[in-house]
Amino acid sequence: MLNCRVVITRLASPLGCFQAARASTASAAQADTAPPKRQRPAKFEADGQSFVTDDKWNLSPAVIKLMERRLLQEQKNPLTLLKQRIVNHFHGKYRKPGGRSPLYAVCEQEPRVVSTFANFDSLLTPIDHVSRRSSDTYYVNEGHCLRAHTSAHQHKLMTQGLDNFLVVGDVYRRDEIDATHYPCFHQMEAVRLYSADELYQTRAGEELAVFEEIPDAERKPGKQERHTVDAVKALEIRLKSTLEDLSDALFGPECEKRWVDAYFPFTHPSYELEVKYEGKWLEVLGCGIMEQKLLESAGVTDKVGWAFGIGLERIAMVLYGVPDIRLFWSRDSGFLSQFEGLKPEDDVKYKPISAHPQVLFDISFWLPAGVAFDDMRADVCDVIRGAGGELIEQVKLSDEFENKKKGKNSQTYRIVYRSNEKALSKEEVNVVHKSIERELVEKFGVTMR
Ligand code: DAH
């Protein structure tokens, strides 16, 4: 998910080249036969920006709908919990000198339609790179697309003067579709820039350089032309220890992880971190030492840096045991209720919900005189569980009030019935529901309302 496009270019094998060549021939052939034009609006508005569309437009109604949802603003969504957990980790561990404020600025409101300069060119993505194809990216017009990664904001934020930041948000790709890929997913990006003093933590009088100006210096597998070996080593140690600490904080130090060499146009050297999940290695992030050319074009002339991009769904799937990426989009309260009211640091494992539909019934009654709300709650739950057994998925107290005039207390519960074996009919649920009511009246003296 993170970079399936990168896999193709990274392969030095003839197969990799062949695949890329064949694909571009195919798209040229398509252009010749002029495919039917998609229905497109004249204008497209998103996040306070308005764009005139052109023939490059390829957004589907389905992807526009996904843009409207904004999962990271839903408190109950596990991705929101995870985002906050990672932000808390960074804020807790990395502070500005003096410790009063967090080191990393958090940017969550960047617009999702970005220029192709931001998404590709600023990041030094080659002009023929597969990720630029209309079959991979959602284009609004020739010069604008839906961000395909949070890296699209690196250049602008550095230009604005930020040295250390996290960028979080939804990103869009016309990717394959399976249990770990979805046209919209979420990423957390980080950039950390250092002056030589910050990188080496030198004392006054000590000099260690981050740049070496050697005429005709060549790029090597382990380093860029202008970087000193010391700079690369120091950056690599800092980058990897930052990410290993994060991984330990999320998965525990006993979780197996490994570093794999990678290729990204905007970092060199580049790496991916994989963690072992259910016996398989799963790629959870890409990172590397930032291309100096990218920093220079953003006006940063005296610093070096590292960056990483994490796939939030990938991490959340491992952390919470969510087996399918589509579940993050579920509105089913059987899913969402499992994450409701949790703190970001709470450990929770998702329990699979039934594929059959829910049936909702409410129960409202007056409490017998002298019974406290809390005591009644515990008794009601016992009765419901006893009578409803496996058919009860959730019980929620939805209303509770005191009627001063009548001197009576009332409670209402919403019961969610759902079977693992079959779709329940209203009639059969009603039989169970009536037996719950009866037991509450007979055992606890409540009066149904
Ligand atoms: N943008 C990359 C992707 O979506 C992930 C990534 C790799 C981000 C390396 C970075 C980085 O900041 O340095 O596949």
UniProtKB/TrEMBL annotation:
Q: Molecular function terms in GO for this entry?
A: ATP binding; phenylalanine-tRNA ligase activity; tRNA binding
Annotated ranges, domain FDX-ACB: 354-449
GO biological processes: phenylalanyl-tRNA aminoacylation
Which top-level enzyme class is recorded in the Swiss-Prot or TrEMBL entry? ligase
* Domain of life of the native organism: Eukaryota
Give the EC number(s) listed in the UniProt record.
Answer: 6.1.1.20
Family under the similarity heading = Belongs to the class-II aminoacyl-tRNA synthetase family.
Q: What is the annotated role of this protein in its UniProt record? A: Is responsible for the charging of tRNA(Phe) with phenylalanine in mitochondrial translation.
> PANTHER family from the entry?
PHENYLALANINE--TRNA LIGASE, MITOCHONDRIAL, PHENYLALANYL-TRNA SYNTHETASE
Q: What is this protein called?
A: phenylalanine--tRNA ligase
Lineage of source species:
Eukaryota, Metazoa, Ecdysozoa, Nematoda, Chromadorea
